[in-house]
Design goal:
Helix content: 55-70%
Biased composition (Basic and acidic residues): 1-18
Number of strands: 0
Number of helices: 4
Keywords: Membrane, Transmembrane, Transmembrane helix
Region (Disordered): 1-33
Shape: elongated
Radius of gyration: 22 Å
Order of helices and strands: HHHH
Biased composition (Basic residues): 21-32
Transmembrane segments: 46-63, 69-87, 99-121
Strand content: under 5%
Largest sheet: none
Length: 127
């Protein structure tokens, strides 16, 4: 039995892929704006928002507001656990890492731990 070969016009056709890449490149060269590809599933859109939240929290930590940054990251992970519990299974997208229970427990535990750490650590002596 021979190996399956790609057919013309299919997604694995090299000519079709080259033509699609060429079209996008020509549009960009002509001055047309090529819109960014946004995630389609609801879970992937939520995941993108969670990445932004973690980025904001890490930026706060980077500029010296570690308590606020850690709280933002903790709340973001907590919201991620809530989102994983609410979003239907067929729309989870990149929000799914392991099983549903593992994702919910892990994100919630991590979020609560970071938020509690940010709130419990006493402030240091004034500099």
């Amino acid at each position: 039995m021979g190996r399956p070969e790609p057919r013309r016009g299919r997604s694995d056709d090299a000519r079709d892929a080259a033509q699609q890449r060429g079209r996008r490149g020509r549009e960009a060269r002509r001055g047309r704006l090529v819109s960014p590809v946004l995630p389609r599933s609801r879970g992937s859109q939520i995941y993108l928002c969670l990445l932004v939240g973690v980025g904001v929290g890490l930026a706060l930590v980077g500029v010296g507001h570690w308590r606020a940054g850690l709280l933002v990251v903790g709340v973001t992970f907590g919201l991620g656990g809530l989102a994983r519990a609410v979003v239907p299974q067929d729309h989870v997208g990149m929000l799914r890492v392991r099983g549903r229970t593992f994702d919910i427990v892990w994100l919630t535990l991590l979020g609560v731990s970071l938020a509690v750490l940010a709130l419990v650590v006493p402030p240091g002596p004034p500099a």
